[in-house]
Amino acid sequence: MVIAIVGINNWFWDRGTSPTIISILDLFLWQFLYPVTLVHFFQKTSNEASGKIVNLKYLYVPFILLSACNIVISVSTIFSLYNLPQIVGNYIGHFYKTVSFLSVIFPIYTIILSYRFVLTHKDNPSKKWLKHLWVYLSIILLFGVGLELYRFIFSEKLPLTYLWTFSSIFIYWLVYKGMYQFKLSNDRYEIRTITKKEQSKSLSSNAKNSHFKNLLLLIEEEKIHHDPYLSREDVAQRLEISNGYLSQIIKENTSRSFSDLVNHHRIRDVKMMLKDPMFDNYSLLSIGLECGFNSKTSFYTNFKRETGLTPKEYKNK
Fold first, then answer.
1. Could you tell me which residue ranges the HTH araC/xylS-type domain spans (predicted)?
2. Residue closest to 106 by CA, chosen among 36, 182, 6, 11
3. 102, 134, 159 — which closes off a domain?
4. What angle do helix axes 243-254 and 210-221 make, rounded to 10 degrees?
5. Number of domains in the chain
6. Does residue 116 lie within any of the structural domains?
7. What is the CA radius of gyration of the chain?
8. In whole angstroms, what is the distance from residue 81 CA to residue 253 CA?
9. Are 273 and 174 in contact, with CB atoms under 8 Å apart?
10. CA angle 150-156-160, nearest 5°?
11. CB of 89 within 8 A of CB of 14?
12. Who wins on pLDDT, 125 or 81?
């Protein structure tokens, strides 16, 4: 919303016109507000990951103070409601030169600050999109900073056509991704709800030892293989055996490796869902992700390796 307001203000600026509503909106220096909202977004995701709360209220100080000064000046120079003292009028040019300089420095500071929060997710593959988001936003902000730097050095304002074109494309992409990710997340939630209601299936009677039977219990009843970050170490710890012994009993009972066994059960669950009309309304990807694959590539590659078909081909068949 803030970026849209800034865009409208600058569009009228480029046209050389200023309706009353735009003059009112222009009283506030929005360029010191929208970088703060971006930092807060990355901070929120960081809080969810680390549990740490960082106070960022000080970031609002430039917006509040500079907007207050701009209102005092604009009410006199634009709306002519009163006359500023001569001594104040002498410093108006310096004030806006300072604003231009801070418009270069402040976004760069917020980019660096927000990157600290992005680093919180460096070991979490599911948050990789946050790094991409940070990169896209940083490129747009730095492009705007370049335009403002030119204005500061040469006292000439360049057209913002390209900046707002890039921003518009980015916002459309963000809305699309948001709707797509929401649909995907909602599908996975509903799939999880349905599968929790299903009865656990009977275990294989061919298991050669109790540890392997316990492993099958974890798979069948607790659906541990639906965790995309499941590791051999995690399972061995649950079974209270060594990593090597876990690999040994899996090999003896299935002739598979740990990862192959886990993916086999993931694919088994996917195939069951694809055959069940109850899951017809959900996308293939949402089913694959809910069954434990951590990406579309991993899902399609492993599924085709085991079945010889893509998920779509299997469902059609």
1. 213-317
2. 36
3. 159
4. 90
5. 2
6. yes
7. 29
8. 87
9. no
10. 70
11. no
12. 81
